[in-house]
From TrEMBL:
This is Uncharacterized protein. Residues 95-104 have a biased composition (Basic and acidic residues). Residues 1-18 form the signal peptide. Keywords: Signal. Residues 87-107 are annotated as: Disordered.
């Protein structure tokens, strides 16, 4: 479904969206450091620093001001420390726990929704379950789609697909499609991608390249008219198709300890130059997901080697069991100002490379540094220093002005 398309296609995080920067970071949160509240009418104003002795202020007012600035100091420190912690590793080498939705790119996208026609009210007792094992397709790849009807308790209901068609879906400016509608067939006979005959789940394994869409570069929609008893329904699936890969993987991989990190190096034969966004998953020796590693930079045409770094401090902090395994490498050439916004590379599914055993002392424990990170931390430090200065001023003993 299109909602699943939006959720799945972004690769989470979105760090690659800032295509003009190889190391984008979140914008800082500004801590407002307002002046202390105005003194109540009738009280003497506090003179500016260096202009003479200050008058004794009301103890309750001083206590309130100290409490206010103590809260601001605490908040400023929390924001600074949270930003420092969040950026201690680079965007291209992050803990697996931060990206649970990206660790298994081959898992189907599953949804449950009311079985109904568009615009019609939902009817109790009829639910539709859909499954789609991939959103993006490239070249000869195929997608597996399935639908099933269940009641409110999850028990199967009879379901028939009365009509199913595939067609190019219009995006942006309307234009006549060069591709006609193609009838497709969902089955429940244990064939063509169907896992079990007669279980009520109707399945289609569909390959755009062999169904008249071999040259299409864009969005394909598969629409279904459904019937369960007297209840009619409608559903659709969207896939984004790339006919030819802009680069192809070359065999082999290697590793290198560089600048205190463990780089996993892969080779590409690049046909189209541009910004490539690559993601890989790293598991420890026990099969536990450890890191999501990536590459986000421009590549010129030709044979190129790219590094997927496992950052040194991430290794030192996480202490994974070696050897590590790189698996499920996915990637695309980013198109910044068009739809589709990417041209896919063929996925390297399963194990891609296993490292040798390492000791943690080989890697650096230093935090990641960048000009942008340093600039943000400097501003956060200013917020902390301002709050500390205000507290010191409010804590100094006041003197009584002489005659």
């Amino acid at each position: 479904m299109i909602a699943a398309l939006a959720a799945t296609g972004l690769l989470g995080a979105g760090w690659w969206l800032a295509a003009g920067s190889a190391t984008p970071e979140p914008a800082p949160t500004t801590i407002a450091m307002a002046a202390p509240a105005v003194a109540p009418p009738g009280s003497a104003p506090a003179p500016a620093a260096g202009l003479g002795p200050r008058r004794v202020r009301d103890p309750a007012e001083l206590a309130a001001q100290r409490a206010l600035w103590q809260q601001r100091l605490q908040r400023a420190r929390e924001v600074r420390d949270a930003y420092a912690a969040a950026t201690r590793y680079p965007p291209e080498s992050r803990p697996a726990a931060e990206h649970g939705d990206q660790l298994h790119p081959g898992r189907p996208v599953q949804e449950t929704m009311p079985l109904r026609m568009p615009g019609a009210p939902a009817r109790d007792g009829f639910q539709l379950r859909t499954s789609q094992d991939r959103i993006y397709l490239q070249g000869d790849e195929a997608v597996r789609l399935s639908v099933a009807a269940v009641d409110d308790a999850g028990q199967p209901l009879p379901l028939a697909v009365t009509r199913a068609i595939a067609h190019e879906a219009a995006q942006g400016q309307q234009r006549a499609s060069r591709y006609g509608q193609v009838d497709v067939s969902f089955r429940d006979d244990g064939q063509n991608g169907d896992t079990q005959a007669g279980d009520g789940e109707l399945t289609l394994r569909w390959q755009p390249a062999t169904q008249g869409f071999a040259e299409l570069d864009g969005l394909i929609r598969i629409e279904l008219s459904l019937q369960s008893g007297e209840q009619a329904g409608y559903a659709y699936f969207d896939v984004i198709y790339t006919p030819a890969a802009p680069a192809t993987w070359l065999p082999g991989a290697r590793e290198a300890v560089q600048d205190g990190s463990l780089n996993l190096l892969l080779k590409l034969q690049v046909q189209q130059a541009g910004r490539y966004v690559i993601s890989g998953r790293v598991d420890d020796a026990n099969g536990k997901p450890f890191a999501l590693v990536g590459f986000n930079d421009t590549l010129a045409a030709g044979t190129r080697e790219l590094a997927l770094p496992v950052f040194g401090k991430l290794l030192r902090d996480g202490q994974p069991a070696f050897p590590l395994t790189l698996r499920d490498v996915t990637g695309f050439l980013l198109h910044e100002d068009r739809f589709p916004d990417r041209a896919l590379l063929a996925a390297r599914e399963g194990k891609v490379y296993t490292t040798r055993a390492h000791v943690l002392a080989e890697f650096s424990s230093a935090e990641w540094q960048s000009e942008e990170r340093s600039r943000y931390l400097t501003e956060y430090d200013k917020d902390v220093a301002q709050a500390e200065a205000q507290l010191r001023q409010l804590s100094e003993p006041a003197t009584v002005a002489g005659p």
